[in-house]
Amino acid sequence: MSTANSRLILGVWRIADWQMHPSQVADLVEGCLDMGMNTFDLADIYAGYRCEALFGEALASRPALKSRIKLISKCGIALVTPNRPQHRVKHYNTSSAHIVASAENSLAQMGVEQLEMLLIHRPDPLMDADEIAEAFFQLKQAGKVAQFGVSNFLPHQLELLQSRLDEPLAANQVEVSLLHTDTLFDGTLDQCQRLRIKPQAWSPLGGGKLSAEPAETPLGQVLARLGAELGVSREQLAIAWLLRHPAGIQPVLGSGKLDRLQQLVAAQEIMLDRQQWFELLEAAMGRPMP
After folding, report:
1. pTM of whole model > 0.85?
2. Catalytic annotation on 49?
3. What percent of the chain has pLDDT over 70?
4. Residue 124 has pLDDT above 70, yes or no
């Protein structure tokens, strides 16, 4: 595999909605690599437990891609779905046996030998940190996962798990965007800075809502004015705003369209100054800073 994770990550949770032939998905992966984006985010449950198999079909159509990409997957959520008839109720499962089995299934579905990163998808009220630590140790020793992290964990939940691990967690994937700024103030990003954990931002464009933000709202007005001043789109501004944060946020992009991804990747060249950043934050919150 290549040596470094890209700053921007392609999330393929909607791969079933893209309605692409495996070769077209492989073309998309090639295009991402050409843009310097080598990291791809998946989870066992996405697309009704079909996401990893669909992505695996793309990799099988072009096996040379496997050595050029970094794969992130997640586990720990159990959905009620025809693909899992044994599940009577949606629940979380972070038992050691489930984590190991899920990771091994992810590898088999995608036809690869190692995940770059495995994340615990959500904090489990029945989480036994020692069990998770044992699963991580087994997977690391077997060479099946290079790094481990969490998703949607609050600082105290991450602290508990980290206390049982010999190696530092590598990531916390959380919701953060101009439409979801709570993460800036609840200690999550502060903890990431303190522990040098990379925060990954899911839904960095508010699940598409940012594109539809009315022009007359405070946020719509600031996006329009700064966009005109800098010659960029509102989506590019939103990504640049995340990239400006000192925690080193890694946005997880969700588009299956190469031209749109090219536009978002170009946001890495936009350098917002401190006042521009705060203009966007104040407009997003709908109130001035205290």
Report:
1. yes
2. no
3. 99
4. yes
For residues 219 and 80, give the distance between their C-alpha atoms in angstroms, rounded to a whole number. 38
Pick the CATH number of 9-169 from 1.10.3470.10, 3.10.150.10, 3.20.20.100, 3.40.50.2000: 3.20.20.100
Burial of 105 (0-12, 13-18, 19+ CB in 10 A): middle
The C-alpha atoms of residue 83 and residue 15 are separated, in whole angstroms, by 17
Reduced to 3 states (helix: H, G, I; strand: E, B; else coil), residue 21 is coil
**One-letter identity of residue 114:** Q
Q: Which of 15, 40, 46, 238 is catalytic?
A: 46
Q: Is the pLDDT of residue 1 over 90?
A: no
Beta strands in the chain (DSSP E): 9-11, 39-41, 70-75, 77-78, 91-92, 115-120, 145-151, 171-175, 198-202, 250-253
Mean pLDDT throughout 181-206? 97
Count CA atoms closer than 13 A to 229's CA, side-chain side: 12
- Residue positions counted in the chain: 290
Report domain extents, the chain: 9-169
pLDDT tens, position by position, 246-271: 999 999 999 999 999 999 999 999 99
